Amino acid sequence: MFRWAQQQLANVAGTQEPEYGPEAIQPVGKNESDPPFTEVTKADLKWLTPDTTCVETQTFYLHADNGHTVMLQVIYSNVAGLRITTQFNCKVFYPNNEKPFLWSTAPLENYGFDEDQYSFYADGVSVELSEDGSSYTIKSAADENALVDVKITRTAPGFMGGKDGVSNYGTDPKAPWGSMRHVFWPRNNIEGRVITKDGEIDLKGRAMYSFALQGMKPHHAAARWNFANFQSPTYSAVIMEFTTPSSYGSTVVRVSGIVTDGKILFANTHTGHVKHTETKADDENEWPEPTSISYKWEGKTEDGKEVHALVEGSLGPRLDRIDVMAEVPGFIKSFVATAAGTKPYIYQFGPKMTMEIQVGDETKKEDGTLFGEATFIS
To answer: Which part of the chain is the Svf1-like C-terminal domain (predicted)?
Structure first.
C-alpha cells in the first residue's frame, strides 16, 4: 500500500518513483505467446486520447530528393486529466547544413477528430488519413513562416512490436498504471511542399511515420532514448529503443525492423543493438553526446532467411541539440519541473551513411540517409 501511495504522489507531483524493479514493466513483445511483430491495419491508426496523463504524437520524417530533411509533428498532451493542449511542429534542415534549420512550433486552438478518431483537425491544421488507410495528407497554415501541404503514401506495410506495440508499467500486469505504444510506417513516398519566407521547398522523396503514445510522465517512462530512421533506395530501417529509469530496473525496450517496397523483411523486439561507440562530454549539461554510433538489425524473413544489417560510423556535426525544458512547449515543463535530477536533452543527427545488409547468402552495401536521435532525460 505504501508503494502504491508513493506512486500516486509521483503521478501528481512528478516526484521520483520508488524502486519497483524490472518485474514492474512488461516490455512489448516479451510474453512467450507474442508474435515478433504485427502488421499495422487502419484500426491501429486511431487516436486513443486517454483521459489521464499522456503525450500522443504523430511524427513524419521527410527525406526530400533535393537534400532537405523535414520533421512534421502533431502533439496531443493531457496533464493529469486537468489540461489538454495540442501543438503543430515543423522543422526544416537544409542540405549540407548550408544555413540554420527552420523551427516552427504553434499551439493550436479548437482541436478535434473525425468521428472514428483517424484524422486530426484544429484551426489552420489538418492531418487526414485516407479512406483506404494508405496515406496521410498534412496541411498547416498555423505559422506563416512554415506553410505545409504534404501527402505521404505508404509503399510497404507498417508494423508494431509484439501483438499491439504496447509496453505496460505497473506491479499488477492486469492493471497497469502507465504505458508506451509505437506504430511505424517505415517506408512512404512524399509529394508536396513547405513554403517558407525564403521560398518553396519541394518535398518529393521518401518518408517514415511514427505514431506514439506515452501514457505516463516522460521521465517516469524512460531515462534514455535512441531512435534511428535509415532510408536508402531499397531499404527503410527503424530502431526505437528506450531504457527505463532505475525504478523499473533500467530495463531496455527495443523495437526494430527493415522493410522494402511492398513487404516487411522482418521486425522484432529482441535482437539488434544501438551503441554509442564514441562520445564527448557536452560542456552545457555533461551528457555524453554521441559522435560515432552503431545500429544493428537482426531477424528472419517470412521464408526463414537470416537478415543481418549494420549502419555504423561517425555522426558528423549534429543537426541540433534540444534543451527540452527550454524549447518544448509548456506541457512538458509541467510534467518534469518538480522532478529532481531531470534535465532532458535531445541530440539530432542526419549524416549520409552506408548499410551493409545480408539476406540469406546475399550481401550488399547501400548508401542512404540516417535521421537519428539520442535523448538523455535522467
So the answer is: 216-378
Q: Which residues contact 330 (CB under 8 A, 6 or more apart)?
A: 85
Report the alpha-carbon distance of residue 5 to residue 215 in Å, rounded. Answer: 19
Number of structural domains (the chain) is: 2
8 Å CB contact between 42 and 129:
yes
**240 and 158 within one domain:** no
Q: Please report whether residue 27 resides in a domain.
A: no
280 is a domain residue:
yes
**Residue 362 cell numbers, joined:** 546475399
- pTM equals 0.92
pLDDT at 316: 94
Of the residues 216, 251, 286, the one at which a domain ends:
216
Residue range(s) defining the domain that contains residue 96: 37-216
Cβ atoms of 215 and 111 closer than 8 Å: no
Identify the pLDDT of residue 285: 86
Q: How confident is the model at residue 2 (pLDDT cuts 50, 70, 90)?
A: very low
AA identity, residue 235:
Y
pLDDT at 263 > cutoff 60: yes
To which H or E segment does residue 259 belong? strand 252-260
Q: Where are the alpha helices (DSSP H) in 153-290?
A: 218-221
Q: Which residue, of 165, 185, 216, is where some domain finishes?
A: 216
3-state DSSP call for residue 42? helix
Same domain, 238 and 207: no
- Specify the higher pLDDT residue, 10 or 102: 102
Distance of alpha carbon 269 from alpha carbon 27, whole angstroms = 9
- 3-state class of 34 per DSSP? coil
One domain, residues 127 and 249: no
